[in-house]
Amino acid sequence: MFKLYNTLSGKKEGFKSLETGKVKMYTCGPTVYDYAHIGNLAAYLYADTLRRTLEYLGYEVRHIVNITDVGHLTDDDIGQADSGDEKMIKAAKRENKTPWEIAEFYTEKFFSDIEKLNIRKASYYPRATAHIPQMIKIIEKLIEKGLAYEKNGNVFFDVEKFSDYGKLSKKKLTDLKIGNRLEEHPDKKNPFDFALWLKAPKNHLMQWDSPWSKGYPGWHIECSAMSMEYLGQTLDIHTGGEDHIFPHHENEIAQSEGATGKTFSHFWFHNRFLLVDGAKMSKSKGNFYRLDDILAMGFDPMDFRLLVLSGHYRSGLNFTQNSLKQAQTNRKKIERFVSELKKIASQSVKSTNEEFLNLNEYQTRFDQAIKDDLNTPLALSVVYELILQINKKIINKKFTSTEAEKVLNFWNKINKVLGLKFEEKTANLPETVKKLVAERESARKNKNFSLADQLRDKIKNLGYQVEDTTDGQVARKIKK
Ligand code: AMP
Ligand code: ZN
């Protein structure tokens, strides 16, 4: 049985989907006013591992990831209708672009980052600005049910009217009142009521008509609207980072369950934060990294993927240059192993009568690890042990092509969960290209760079592009 920790119950629970064989999963996506940082990307990698595991276990997963291209307020709970301090708008002013251009640019950047990390594409990426009518409908319902109120064109959710408020974060309204630095909005009944709709100042760049005012939605409502639009009123799993437990997800539950009267999501999956050198990442502290920053240092996207998988999603990850270097060493080890398997499998190394490894045992241990609340570090230790055993056999020349093929099949199967993608260095290249790449390698070793350049041109004429990376040359077919 697949066990998954549920923030709602505070326990690991046996996973059961609402509909047999199918999972409805929603992930809070990026606010596209800036580049994603490695903490955000770690959150998407954890969600990807969950999705891959579900697929590995035979579920068909419908996965929705939203794109927040409106709001959210810099300080979400303040709900200052006329502060104009939304992140999107701030970015638009900073970059002298329209909010729509900002959103377009950073959405593309987000897609490119997740592709590099081999994160599986969601079934759909709905954009908040395309779902204003759905949000308005939910707000109308909430007003009708007496769970929300309007004042001066602003609409707020009345948390005191929703008795389950706090069930996810385990926060009590009475505790919230004490010592919580929530600023008053003149139209709020209680400082912890949250905005559903805000009246926009005249010159506000993003505003829509609504029954209450020309304005824009609060942040939380968009996720309720988009998840219900594409997955229905009840989801199997909702994911996000731990910072979203409160207020974002608590508020999503209040709005959604308030409007429908049904359970919003059965499972709540939250990853702990990624820290850099033990501290919270921040631009002002200078410990802020994007994926491109670490690639510019000579790392491969898979080094970061492996680093994230090397820890448990609920343990938190301390990102340091050394931990990334360690992940790089491990990535190279796995990559060499896979390429060696391919090589041996393509040759005809005969049987030695040596008893072969019991792959079933490795499979069982891998499955047990991954089914225990996605214990990826333990699952990886099974892979490293396998590599060690096989390497011994290779050194002792006791490893046949048939065996290599079996191990390769096993690797391909479990890698559906790990999602490690290795560049095909020279495998799959035509023999002529392979030969030229090898000649170029020795020319480079001998520092004969003009010959290396000539060879690069020859390779190019054959339709292949060769690049020099920290791991040696990578050749790939030039896309027409
Ligand atoms: P945002 O664009 O701020 O909504 O963040 C996108 C996702 O990244 C959310 O699920 C956040 O909870 C998550 N997140 C933000 N910072 C970190 C971090 N340092 N480590 C892990 N997850 C994070
Ligand atoms: Zn959300």
Layout: helices, strands, pairs:
Blueprint: E1 3-6, E2 11-14, E3 22-27, H1 38-56, E4 60-65, H2 87-95, H3 99-116, H4 132-144, E5 148-151, E6 154-157, H5 173-177, E7 194-199, E8 215-217, H6 219-231, E9 235-241, H7 245-260, E10 265-271, E11 274-276, H8 291-296, H9 301-309, E12 317-319, H10 321-346, H11 359-371, H12 376-395, H13 401-418, H14 431-445, H15 449-461, E13 464-469, E14 472-477
Parallel strand pairs: 3-4, 3-9, 9-10, 11-12
Antiparallel strand pairs: 1-2, 5-6, 6-7, 7-8, 13-14
Helix pairs in contact: 1-13, 2-3, 4-6, 4-7, 6-7, 9-10, 10-13, 11-12, 14-15
The protein binds adenosine monophosphate (AMP) and zinc ion.
How would you describe what is shown here?
The protein is 44% helix and 14% strand. It starts with a strand and ends with a strand. Strand 5 and strand 6 (154-157) form a beta hairpin. The chain is α/β, with parallel strands linked by helices and 480 residues long. It binds adenosine monophosphate and zinc ion (ZN). Zinc ion is lined by residues 28, 223, 248. Zinc ion binds next to loops.
Summarize the structure.
This protein has 480 residues and is of the alpha/beta class.
